[in-house]
Design goal:
- An 8-stranded parallel β-barrel has the order 1-2-3-4-5-6-7-8, surrounded by 5 helices.
- It is globular and about 45 Å long.
- It has 10 helices and 8 strands.
- The protein has one domain (about 25-230, about 260-290): Dihydropteroate synthase-like (TIM Barrel), CATH 3.20.20.20.
- With about 290 residues, the chain is α/β, with parallel strands linked by helices.
- The longest helix is centred in the N-terminal third of the chain and has 18 residues, at about 85-100.
- Helix content is about 40%, strand content about 15%.
- α1 crosses α2 (about 85-100).
- α4 (about 135-145) links the parallel β4 and β5.
Length: about 290
């Protein structure tokens, strides 16, 4: 059983409002910190504890609500990392950030229950599982810890997920998969307000399938009105749409999706570039208010 109140979390704010978009319609921002050497966007990689802490603090100061810390790349074709290595990468960062920003919101990006457990015990508030809680131990950990959770859809594993992904109806199949898992959590006592659903753009989907999932956010919400998270930042979808081979060339495309996300009422955007997203969304919110 995981302690319901890991160290450093006793005075944390109610998390539920931070899994919903702001009152003015702006999505919450989740800044990405990759304590890895092989994440797909090289500029997001940090090689030391000091660099990771500095990057996270800068993102909070630039307008991020959440910091998402990962110690294993899950890009297409990525090789697995031993759980012990992943823990050694992420836990010191979480502990340092919890000391520097006691009320800062931290997400652990992992598909391994033992890593998630250590991260929660060190002060993380959310488990962001790219494998969608398919591991029963991860499912049970979320229930026991009562933490916030992002359930993402992935077809297969990082090593094979982009090998000819096939769906009969990608929107329906992805939505039903995520909603089924979320509803099982609720049936077992987890709070609906602490669940957000991510369609997993680029995780076992073709360009057309990704576009179908980005067209509307409503199918993921279900009758319950679940929170929705999109993680599209600098992904291969922009290579395919815009012929931007380098991830450094994909910011404009990413911001275009962010503007669409705000119109769709998406609750959280997981991004590499917090300041640019903050400015874009702030201007859109001001214009929306001015036109009313």
């Amino acid at each position: 059983m995981i302690n319901d109140c890991p160290k450093g979390k006793a005075d944390m704010p109610d998390l539920a409002p931070f899994l919903k978009c702001r009152d003015d319609g702006r999505p919450r921002l989740m800044g990405i910190v990759n304590v890895t050497s092989d994440s797909f966007h090289a500029a997001s990689r940090v090689a030391s504890l000091e660099a990771a802490v500095t990057a996270a603090l800068d993102m909070w100061d630039a307008g991020a609500d959440w910091i998402d810390i990962g110690g294993e790349s899950t890009r297409p074709g990525a090789q697995p990392v031993l759980a012990s290595e992943e823990i050694s990468r992420v836990v010191p960062v979480i502990e340092a950030l919890r000391n520097k920003r006691p009320k800062g919101l931290i997400s652990i990006d992992t598909r391994h229950p033992i890593v998630a457990a250590e991260a929660l015990a060190s002060g993380a508030n959310m488990v962001n599982d790219v494998s969608g809680l398919r591991d029963p131990e991860m499912f049970n950990l979320v229930l026991e810890s009562k933490c916030a959770v992002c359930i993402m859809h992935m077809l297969g594993q990082p090593g094979n997920m982009q090998t000819e992904p096939v769906y009969n109806d990608v929107v329906n199949e992805v939505s039903e998969n995520l909603l089924s898992t979320a509803r099982r959590l609720i049936t077992n006592g987890h709070s609906q307000e602490l669940i957000t659903l991510d369609p997993g753009i680029g995780f076992g989907k073709t360009l057309e399938q990704n576009l179908s999932l980005l067209e509307k956010s409503q199918p993921l919400r279900g009758d319950e009105g679940f929170s929705v998270l999109w993680g599209v930042s600098r992904k291969t979808v922009f290579r395919d749409l815009l012929s931007r081979e380098l991830t450094d060339e994909r910011l404009a495309g990413t911001l275009g999706v962010a503007a669409h996300a705000m119109n769709e009422g998406v609750d959280i955007l997981r991004v590499h570039d917090v300041e640019e997203h903050h400015d874009l969304l702030t201007v859109l919110a001001k214009l929306r208010k001015h036109s009313q």
